[in-house]
Design brief:
Layout lengths: L8 H25 L22 H26 L5 H31 L18 H10 L7 H8 L1
Length: 161
Amino acid sequence: RYEESEYNPFFFLWIFSAVVSSCYTYIWDIKMDWGLFDSNAGENKFLREEIVYSSPGYYYFAIIEDFILRFGWTVSVSLADLDLIHSDLVVSILAPLEVIRRFVWNFFRLENEHLNNCGKFRAVRDISVAPIDSSDQDIIIRMMDEPNGVVNRKRRDKKKG
């Protein structure tokens, strides 16, 4: 048993684990969920080729905000464990900030999903879309099971014309 947390080797192991976890989740947010740091970004440095919001500043702000709030928990919980700051104060400040972080995350996650789905007409079984004619249902199910069963109609029309 250790008298103080700063002498406990498991405390440092916990801090190291929290930092590694925060790094991994931050990179996952930015790269996978938001689709940023694309190598084909063109003029949108560190972003992606196509952005929806009017100013790239929104994206840069969200990148910095996500970083600060991802690591805010690690730093503040560590300080609370060392009794340098009261844990109720940490929760009172960081809980609303975490809600805001997730709110901002949602906007960029939905934007990325929209850009990836737009024009590709991905079909999934989770969304029920009843066909106009019931005889078409078997054809639609077969199309969803085939890797290239559902294609972008615009591209197909260009090839015909």
